[in-house]
Amino acid sequence: MILQRLLEYADSRMDLPPVMYGETPVRWTLVLEPDGALSGVISRGGGKENRRGEDMLVPSVVRAAGIKPKLLADNGEYVLGLGRTDSDPKKVTDRHRHFVDLTRRCAEATEADEVRAVVAFLERWDAGEFREEMEGREGFDPQDDLTFRVEEVYPVDLPDVRAFWASEISGKGAPELTCLVTGAVGPVEKRLPVKVKGLTRIGGQSAGTSLVSANAPAFESYGLKNSLTSPISRDAGERFGKALNVLLAGEKSRVFIGNVVYVFWTREPSELDIGMFMERPDPDRVRNLLRSAETGRYDRAGVGANRFYALALSASGGRAVVRDWLETTVPKAEENLSRWFRAQEMVGLWGEEGAPLGVFRLAASAYRDASKEMQPTVSAAMVRVALNGGRLPSDLLARAVRRCVVGTARQDGTREHVTRERAALIKLIFTTQERLDMSEMKSLNPNPDLEDEDREAYACGRLLAELEGIQRAALGRINATITDRYYGAASSTPASVFGMLVGDAQSHLSKLRKTKPGVHSAVQQRLEEIMSNLGGYPKTLTMERQGLFSLGYYHQRARNRADIKAANDKKNENPDGEDS
Amino acid sequence: MNGESPLEVKVWGDFACFTRPEFGVERVSYGVMTPSAARGILEAIFWKPEFRWRVREITVLKPIRHYSILRNEMNSIQSERSARGWQVGGGGYYADDDRAQRHALCLRDVAYIIRADIELKEHATDHPAKYRDQFRRRVKRGQCFTQPYLGTREFSAFFGPPDGDEEPIEPDEEYGLGFMLFDVEFEPATKGKVAYAGHGSGGRTVERGNAKPKFFQARLSGGVLEVPRELYEGGGA
Question: Is the pLDDT of residue A142 over 60?
Fold first, then answer.
C-alpha cells in the first residue's frame, strides 16, 4: 500500500514525463515536409551554456554498450549514420540501421503521418538526398542529438508514439504477471528502473538504494527471482520511484532524525509542515496549533478529510528499509500533534516559558551520546506517537531517569542532573502512558493531583532541590553540591539519605538565620510546606516514581531560580531596597 | 460448499508477520492476515488430498499494532549439493561471512476468526460432512499436523473454537488495505521453475510448473476482510 500511495502522489501531484522519456539536450531539429523532404534545419542552443543543445522531453534509455536506438531522437550516428572520426564505420551503419528499423516499426504500429514522414526522409537520406545540408554544417558533431519536426508537430510528442515507446521498452521477454501496485496484468520488471536517491546521508549507497529488491538466493521464492517476487510493472516502478525521490529531495516533505528519514505527504496539497514540527518546532506555529486545537477549528469529519501519509526509511547498504508506515487524516494528525506539544510543555530552567522541543532533542536527552547509542526505533516510536497517538516505551523513561542520576556536564564544570529536555521527556512519557495526570505539571505544582506515594515521590524531589538551595544560600558556590553527591541515593532510596540531609541542613539554616534572616524565613516556610506533603521518607521509589522525583526536583529548582531572578531584578531596579 | 455454514476457527498469537511480497527482504507486514496465511493455518490443522480450503472471511478481533525487530539473517539458502560436497571434501558453511541484518515490521498481539469452506476435489468419494466434522473435532481438541503459524514459522499461532461473543474491531472507516496477496497460483508447465505435489485420482504426483502470485483489492469493512468467491474460480491452488 505504501507503493500505491506513492503512485497516487506521482499521478496527482507530480508532473512526470511519460514512460522512459527524459529531459535530454537536443542540438538540431530537422524540419520535414509530409513527404519526407528536408525543408530546414534548426539549431537549438550551441552557445556556451548549452553546447550540447537545449533540453527537450524525448525518449531516453540508459545505454552502456550495445546498440539501443532511441525513438525519433538520437545522436548523429544513429539518426543519420554519420560517424565520428574515430568510430568504427561498421558499427555506425549498424546503429543507423537499427534506428531506421525502429522508426519503421513505430510507423507501422502508430500509423501516424508524421512518423511516416520521418521514415520517408530516412529512406531518401539513405539514398543520398539532402546530404549536403548536414555534412558541411557548421558546428555539427555526430555526438549531438537530433530530433524531427514535421511541419509544426514534433513526433516525439504524439501520444501514440509515447505508448509505442513504452511498450517497446518494457515488453521484451518480461513475464506477464499482475502488477501488485496497479492491479493490471502485463509485463513486469526484473529490476526496477528507478533507484531511491537521497538516503546517502543515512548510510545508503550513493548510486541509489532500492526500495523493492531481492538480490540474494535467500530472497527468491517459488522460483521467482529479483523483483519478480513482487511483480511491479515498469511504469508503476518508475512513477513511485520518482515520487519517492521528489519527496526525499523536498525540504518540506522530509526530515532526518538520527539515521532514519521520515517522508510525509498528503493526498491533496496541504499547509501542514510536519518536518518543522518534528525537527525544529517554531514556537509561534506551535502556539497557533494549540490554540486552534482548543477552539476546535479543525474539521473532524471522517470521510473526505485530507489523508496524511508518513513513511520512515533507513538504509542498509543498497536497500532502503521501511521502518514505519502511517496512514491517517490531516485533522487527526494535527490533533495528535497538539496533544504532543501540550504533553511536553515544561517551564524553562529559570522559570521562563519554555520553547517546544524537537523529537531528536527530546530523545537524545535520554542518552549520553545519542549519535552512537540511540536506536533508530526510538525516534521512529516518538514520531509515530506524535502523529498517531499511543504510548512511549517505558524503557525510555528508565534511560531518562538514569541520565538524571548521572547528569550532564556543563561548561562551567558542574553537572546538570535534570535538564529541561529530560524533564519534558519524562512528562511526555507519563502523559502518553496515561497512568498519571500530568495536565498541571508544566511548572511547580504544590498540590499535584497524584496518589499518596506518587505525591511523596514528587515532594522528595522538591525537598532535594530545596536543600540544595539552602546549601547554596549558606555556602555560596561549591564544587560538589549535595545533588552531585546524593541525587542517585535520594532518588532510589530516599529514606536512607534524607534524614541525614535534613539534619545537615540545620547547620546551614542556623547560619542563614544569622547572616540572611530574610532568606532564612522564606526558606523555612518552603521547607515546612514541602515536608507537610511527606509522611515519612519512602524506603524505595519505583522507576515511575523516580521520574516524578526528577520532575519535583526540576520544578522546585526552576521556581527557586525564578524567585531569585525576580528578587535580583527588583533589587537592581531600586538599589536601596532590602534583601528579599 | 454453497449454502452450508462455513467452518470457523479462532486463531491468536503474540506476533505475526504477513509479509508483503514487495518488501520480502526487509519485511513489512500487511495489517491483516492474508487469505494464503489463513489457508496455511487451516491446512496445518486439517488437510486431506481429497479437498481444498476456500477461505471466506477473516475477522479481526484486536486493534492493529505494528512492531519492529532487527534480526541477523543469512543470505544463502541451504543446498544439498554443497552439503554433500562438504561431507566428502571437508569444509563447511561459515555464517560470519554470510550474515546481514534485516529489519522486520511485524504485527503484535493479533487475534482472528477464520471462516472457510471445504471444497471437495474431483476424485473424492466421501461425504463432505465427514471432513467438516473431522475439522471441528480437531479444532475443539487442539489437534493439528504441524503447529500453525502467523505468516512466518517463528510466530506460532494458538487456535481454538470461537466463543461466540467476540467482537470485530471498529477500524478507522478508511482503513484501506490496497492490493493484498490472495494466494500463489501454480500453472503446470513442462519447463517450469518449481516442482510441486499434485494430488489427484492417481495419488501424489510431482508436477513442474510456474508460480504466479495473485492479488486482489482488499477491504476491511466492519472489521471483516471478505475474500471474494470469484478469486477461487478459474484454477485452484
Answer: yes
Query: Distance from A232 to chain B by nearest Cα, in Å?
Result: 8
- Of the partner residues A212, A216, A329, the one whose CB lies closest to the CB of residue B75: A216
- Return the CA Rg of chain B: 20
How far apart are the CA of A200 and the nearest CA of chain B, in angstroms? 18
Hey, what's the torsion of the CAs at A388, A394, A400, A403, to 10 degrees?
A: -150
Per-residue confidence band for B237, with pLDDT thresholds at 50, 70 and 90: very low
Q: In the predicted model, what is the mean pLDDT of residues A9-17?
A: 80
pLDDT, tens digit, 9 for 90 and up, residues A17-61: 777 777 778 888 888 888 888 888 888 877 777 777 888 888 877
B-side interface with A, Cβ within 8 Å? 20-26, 28, 66, 68, 73-77, 100-103, 105, 172-179, 181, 184, 192-194, 210-215, 217
Find, in chain A, the residue whose alpha carbon is nearest to that of B196.
A222
Residues A508-524 pLDDT 10s: 999 999 998 888 888 99
Q: Do A180 and B213 touch (CB under 8 A)?
A: yes
Buried (b) or exposed (e) across A481-518, using 16+ Cβ within 10 A? bbbeebbbebbbebeebbeebbeebeebbeebeeebee
Element (H, E) at A556: helix A543-573
CB atoms B213 and A181 under 8 Å: no
Measured between CB atoms, which of A217, A221, A307 is closest to B24? A221
Residues paired with A316 in a beta bridge: A319
pLDDT of A260-298, one tens digit each? 888 988 888 887 788 788 888 888 888 888 887 666 655
Distance from CA of A159 to the nearest CA of B (A): 29
Give the distance from residue B5's alpha carbon to the nearest chain A alpha carbon, in angstroms: 32
Residues A149-170 as b/e (b if ≥16 CB within 10 A, e otherwise) read: bbeeebbbbbeebbebbbebbb
Confidence of residue A172 (pLDDT cuts 50, 70, 90): low
Q: In one letter, which amino acid is A236?
A: A
SS3 content of chain A, % helix, strand, coil (to 5): 50, 15, 35
Q: Could you give the count of Cα atoms lying within 13 Å of A414 in the half-sphere of its Cβ?
A: 13
Q: ipTM score here?
A: 0.79
Contact across the interface for A183 and B26, Cβ inside 8 Å:
no
Across the interface, of B21, B68, B173, the residue whose CB is closest to A180 is B21
pTM of the complete model:
0.74
Residues of chain A neighbouring B68 (CB-CB closer than 8 A): 323-324, 377, 380
Q: Are A563 and A473 in contact (CB under 8 A)?
A: no
Number of A to B CB contacts under 8 A, please give it.
108
Instruction: For residue B177, list chain A residues with Cβ-Cβ distance below 8 A.
Output: 1
Contacts of A36 (CB under 8 A, 6+ apart): A117, A118, A119, A120, A121, A122, A123, A124
For residue B229, the distance in angstroms to the closest alpha carbon of chain A comes to 18
Q: Answer whether A213 sits within 8 Å of B100, measured CB to CB.
A: no
SS (H, E, C) chain B: CCCCCCEEEEEEEEEECCECHHHCCCEEECCCCCHHHHHHHHHHHCCCCCEEEEEEEEEECCCCCEEEEEEEEECCCCCHHHHHHHHHHCCCCCHHHHEEEEEEEEEEEEEEEEEEEEEECCCCCCCHHHHHHHHHHHHHHCCCCCCCECCCCCCECEEECCCCCCCCCCCCCCCEEEEEEEEEEEEECCCCCEEEEEEECCEEEEEEEEEEEEEEEEEEECCEEECCHHHHCCCCC
